[in-house]
Amino acid sequence: MQYVFYGPIERNRYGSDLFRNESAAAPGFQNDVVTVFRVNQSAIERDEFSTRSP
Predict the structure, then answer these.
(1) What per-residue confidence (pLDDT) applies to 54?
(2) Dihedral of the alpha carbons of 7, 3, 17, 27, in degrees to the nearest 10
(3) Are 14 and 26 in contact (CB under 8 A)?
(4) Residues 7, 54, 48, CA angle at the centre, nearest 5°?
(5) Number of Cβ within a 10 Å radius of residue 17
(6) What's the CA gap between 23 and 13, in Å, rounded?
(7) Which domain of life is it from (predicted)?
(8) Tens-digit pLDDT profile for residues 1-50
(9) What does the angle CA 39 – CA 44 – CA 45 come to, to the nearest 5 degrees?
(10) What is the pTM of this model?
(11) Of 19, 20, 49, which Cα lies nearest the Cα of 36?
(12) Could you tell me the strand order of the sheet in which 25-30 lies?
């Protein structure tokens, strides 16, 4: 996985602070409606990827 689309449905379900660890996912594109996060695959492989529970 290289990118994660985070739009109104995801924001409504998970809130606006789903990705707490900036080393695992950083905004690659953002506008008023959506954010597309660029995923750092090596951070995931090192188990640095964390999210809050829905």
Answers:
(1) 46
(2) -100
(3) no
(4) 85
(5) 9
(6) 23
(7) Archaea
(8) 689 899 999 999 988 877 765 677 888 999 999 999 988 877 767 765 55
(9) 130
(10) 0.68
(11) 19
(12) 3-6, 35-39, 25-30
